[in-house]
Amino acid sequence: MQYPKSILHGRKRVSTSFALITVATTMVLGGCGRSSQTPTGGQTSSSTAPASAAAPTTGVGDFGTLKGICGPGTAKGATGRGVTNSTIRIGTTADPGAAAVPGLEQEFFDVADGFSKWCNAAGGINGRKIVLDKLDAKLFNVGAITVDACQKDFMLVGGGNAFDSASVKPREACKLGSMPAYAVSPEAVNSTLQVLAYPAIATQYPIGGVRLLTDAFPKTKAGVAIGGSNVSSLIPTGKKIQEGLTQLGVKVTTIQSKPPLVANLRPYMEELKNDGSLGLYEYSGVDATPEVQAMKNVGYSPDFLLLTSNFFGPETVAASKTVSFPPTYAALQHLPFELSSQFPVMAQAESIMKTAVAKPQLADFTAIAFDAWTLWAKSATACGSTLTLDCVLGKAGAETAWTGGGMFPPVVTSPDHPKTSSCLLEMRLTTSGWVYDKKVTDPDNGVYNCDSKNLATVKTYQQ
After folding, report:
1. Could you report how far apart the first and last alpha carbons of the chain are, in Å?
2. Residue 8 has pLDDT above 70, yes or no
3. Rounded to the nearest 5 degrees, what angle is found at the Cα of 356, between the Cα atoms of 353 and 358?
4. Nearest 10 degrees: CA dihedral of 19, 203, 368, 175?
């Protein structure tokens, strides 16, 4: 089969969530202090959730709005590596054993456990049961685990690695297909035999999170800083953010260029305090606490702090209990688990996780891993007995309104003609957890704000 360009070259699932982390994946640091400014209108942001979505009729093997993505059947044949009459061997990669960042991407393994157990209980993929291989690269062993997967696995699904460039050559050489939760390096982004559930376009940047905050805190349009990195692969991200903010009429005070490990963050926070930075969009770092404390030490209190969704989890909530944060937000491009009581698909995903894993994290990585697994399962099931890599990638790359069962706004998965979404919502940090901020989100489509201005057309800034 001749693969379409979209499948051969793949696309990176890019939101502000997934560029890199400077030691692991791009994560965002929080800040401390307390601002007296409230959103326009003088009222604090509302955490009231929107009206509940109607629950779909769910059968065994249904996930959200997706019908029968897992179930019994009579599929037969050893149609590819890792496929037998009764099983499909799937690999999931992550880096939880990393000494520098213990537990990194553990959500990918947890979702792999949860989804495979749920799918197998429903009957598997046309009767074939998923056999899971969890492959821990520990940051620096990506090539080795890929070679291991090449010996036994049908595909890699629902995972990802911070330093994934080393996986590309061995994966392509052994013709191992991939449907990861995310891709990080340019090499992985442009690799072959790959489809991602949430595409992105190199000349677009999702600027909506900052747009909504500068509308809610209008005086910050006079000065927003970008907390950046001097890591070459991250430099273009800061430039794209700057271009997008400029298009919105927001003054960018600085793009900070921090090294991967910073012993003393005080000078960086003093710079922001002195240059009139009223808001801060921080996309670089691995731990919020040092930057938070540095802000507090110099008396810098931005009116808002926007974090990438990599920091959308319990660690930041715990940190907020020990040091005072400014109004702090994360912009998400999917439904949050915090609204699971309003959205049955999120309640179903939460139930799947809690059934399989003792203490699962229900965060951004969890959602994007489900996105990948559900796309794979739907595509593999549709292939029936003809369970080949060609068939699975072809069907996965042909979705024209993919939502992961309702977890995400609809996108087109074909990288030949990709279409991402302008929809997002804002989550606000509190000491008791993250809450949906309806006032700042200003929703125009369910819980989402889908204004076209949320996507900026920008240069690629290739290095």
Report:
1. 34
2. no
3. 85
4. -90
pLDDT at 128: 98
Distance in angstroms (rounded) separating the CA atoms of residues 353 and 345 = 12
| Bridge partners, residue 393, by sequence | none
What pLDDT sits at residue 3? 36
Q: Which of 132, 213, 222 is nearest to 424 (CA)?
A: 213
Distance CA 418, CA 200 (A): 7
Q: Which amino acid makes up residue 299?
A: G
Edge-to-edge strand list for the sheet holding 177-179:
129-136, 87-94, 155-157, 177-179
Cβ-based neighbour number of residue 341 at 10 Å: 11
Phi/psi region, residue 447 (left: phi>0; alpha: psi -120 to 50; beta: rest), is: alpha
Q: Tell me: pLDDT of 228 over 90.
A: no
Give CA torsion, residues 347, 403, 61, 113, to 10 deg.
Answer: -70
On the CB side of 69, how many CA atoms lie within 13 Å of its CA? 24
Those residues whose C-beta lies under 8 Å from the C-beta of residue 303, and which sit 6 or more positions away, are: 35, 37, 217, 219, 220, 278, 279, 326, 327
Residue 311, pLDDT above cutoff 90:
no
- Cβ proximity of 11 and 415 under 8 Å: yes
Measured distance CA(54)–CA(331) in Å, rounded: 24
* Strand pairing report for 224-229 and 252-258: parallel
Name the nearest CA neighbour of 18 among 136, 179, 185, 156. 185
State the number of CA atoms in the 13 A half-sphere of 216 facing the CB: 30
Question: What is the rounded distance in angstroms from the CA atom of residue 323 to the CA atom of residue 175?
Answer: 49
CA atoms within 13 A on the CB side of 38: 8
Mean pLDDT of 425-441: 97
Task: Please give the helix or strand (H or E) that residue 282 lies within, else none.
Answer: strand 279-282
Q: Are 84 and 154 in contact (CB under 8 A)?
A: no
Q: Please, are residues 378 and 69 in contact by the beta-carbon 8 Å criterion?
A: yes
DSSP-derived 3-state class of residue 205: strand
pLDDT score for 58 = 67
Tens digit of each residue's pLDDT (9 = 90 or more) over 239-287:
999 999 999 999 999 999 988 778 899 999 999 999 999 999 998 766 6
Residues 267-270: contacts with CB under 8 Å, at least 24 apart: 268/227, 268/294, 269/294, 269/295, 269/297, 269/298, 269/300, 270/298, 270/300
Kindly state the DSSP code that residue 370 receives in the 8-state scheme. Answer: H
**Dist CA 166 CA 182 (whole Å):** 15
